[in-house]
């Protein structure tokens, strides 16, 4: 065997520590056993466009909380289904979104209108596909009293059907790109878009969602505005208290959703997070190449051993990272080359589409 081929499993093994440099120190949202008696009031704002099914689950989960919010505002953003009716039936105040002004994207506009209506001292923006488990609002309210920062919560991704397993690398790299869970603490994290908790004073200080009116991933850009004004931010994992079911309507929804946002997200990621994420993915791709060569070529025992070590490291790393992000199966980690190939295909398809200037759409609206 050509000794040159030993490079492939060798590099894969050397790239393995990169995962620890982006996800080696996870931080979780956890309720304190000490109950707060003087916590500020919280207004929950939910932008919703054709979310009849999701909004039902979210509002039902809010009804079982032992710490009720001051109010729940659903901003009905031009829904064609029963989003508004279901929201009213489950006790939310429904605000009909005004026509989308020029220069605005739909979600920032809906959030902006909801915040204008809100009366609470703190605002909790929730995506309609999130679900809060019992005790979640208590934990969130404790944050407002203990350490008044801007908090961003990443919900735990609940997988229900096999095709949803293909979200694994996207979810993991969303965590990595936030720069929130690295052992190297020298810069603030970016914010997740599904759940955002902040005081109304901080929200108005940065200029509300108006400052990110034209951004597809408004959460990344809001992070920059908070940092520019020295407002501290903190990102946490929500496993056990807040989760989400992202793509219940089939593979097409999964493909369209990740394609619309992931290239923009990569562009906004912290440079170090982007670097080590790329190194980690490259190591997994070298492992995949080693496996292909192993199956197609005669190899010696050294190559076989190194490839086996690289593959085992890949499985262990993927299992660790996938389970941080959601209830992805061990089989997904064991067969990570398949999920990785899907990720690479979708990512480069999105890049080519963007390079050609093709427009992206989501729920009937252009995102360009």
Keywords:
about 375 residues; alpha/beta; 2 domains; three-stranded mixed beta sheet; about 50% helix
The CATH superfamily of the largest domain is known as Spore Coat Polysaccharide Biosynthesis Protein SpsA, Chain A
Rounded to the nearest angstrom, the radius of gyration is 22 Å
Structural class based on helices, strands and sheet pairing: alpha/beta
Name the poorly predicted regions: none
Order of helices and strands: HHEHEHEHEEHEEHEHHEEHHHHHEE
So how many helices?
Answer: 14
User: Percentage of helical residues?
Assistant: 40-55%
Strand order of the largest sheet: 3-2-1-4-8-6-9
Distance between the termini: 51 Å
What can be said about the biggest beta sheet? 7 strands, mixed
CATH class of the largest domain: Alpha Beta
Number of domain units = 2
Beta-strand residue fraction:
5-15%
- Which fold name is given in CATH as the topology of the largest domain? Spore Coat Polysaccharide Biosynthesis Protein SpsA, Chain A
Estimate the mean pLDDT confidence: 89
What does this structure look like?
With 368 residues, this protein is of the alpha/beta class. The protein folds into two domains: 3-22 and 270-354; 26-250, Spore Coat Polysaccharide Biosynthesis Protein SpsA, Chain A (Alpha-Beta Complex). Helix content is 48%, strand content 13%. The chain is built from 14 helices and twelve strands. A seven-stranded mixed sheet has the order 3-2-1-4-8-6-9, sandwiched between helices. A three-stranded mixed sheet has the order 5-10-7. It has a two-stranded antiparallel ribbon with strand order 11-12. A hairpin with a 2-residue loop joins strand 11 and strand 12 (365-366). Helix 10 (251-268) crosses helix 14 (336-355). The model has no long low-confidence stretch (mean pLDDT 89).
């Amino acid at each position: 065997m050509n000794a040159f081929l030993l490079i492939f499993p060798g590099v894969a093994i050397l790239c393995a520590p990169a995962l620890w440099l982006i996800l080696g120190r996870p931080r979780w949202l956890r309720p304190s056993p000490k109950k707060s008696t003087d916590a500020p009031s919280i207004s929950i704002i939910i932008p919703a466009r054709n979310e009849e099914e999701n909004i039902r689950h979210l509002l039902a989960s809010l009804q079982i909380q032992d710490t009720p919010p001051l109010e729940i505002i659903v901003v009905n953003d031009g829904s064609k289904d029963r989003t508004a009716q279901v929201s009213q039936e489950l006790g939310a105040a429904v605000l009909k979104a005004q026509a989308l002004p020029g220069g605005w994207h739909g979600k920032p506009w809906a959030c902006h209108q909801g915040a204008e209506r809100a009366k609470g001292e703190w605002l909790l923006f929730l995506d309609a596909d999130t679900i809060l488990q019992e005790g979640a609002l208590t934990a969130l309210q404790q944050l407002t009293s203990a350490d008044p920062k801007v908090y961003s919560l990443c919900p735990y991704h609940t997988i229900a059907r096999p095709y949803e397993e293909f979200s694994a690398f996207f979810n993991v790299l969303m965590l990595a790109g936030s720069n929130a869970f690295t052992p190297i603490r020298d810069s603030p994290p970016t914010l997740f878009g599904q759940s955002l908790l902040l005081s109304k004073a901080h929200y108005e200080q940065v200029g509300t969602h108006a400052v990110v009116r034209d951004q597809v991933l408004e959460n990344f850009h809001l992070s920059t505005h908070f940092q520019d004004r020295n407002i501290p931010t903190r990102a946490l994992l929500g496993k056990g208290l807040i989760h989400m079911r992202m793509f219940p309507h089939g593979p097409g929804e999964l493909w369209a959703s990740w394609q619309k946002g992931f290239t923009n997200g990569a562009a906004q990621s912290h440079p170090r997070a982007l670097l080590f994420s790329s190194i980690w993915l490259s190591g997994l791709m070298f492992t995949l190449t080693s496996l292909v060569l192993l199956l197609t070529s005669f190899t010696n025992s050294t190559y076989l051993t190194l490839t086996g070590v690289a593959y085992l490291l890949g499985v262990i790393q993927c299992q660790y990272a996938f389970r941080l992000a959601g209830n992805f199966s061990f089989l997904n980690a064991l067969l990570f080359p398949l999920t990785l190939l899907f990720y690479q295909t979708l990512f480069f398809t999105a890049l080519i589409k963007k390079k050609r200037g093709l427009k992206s759409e989501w729920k009937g609206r252009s995102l360009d």
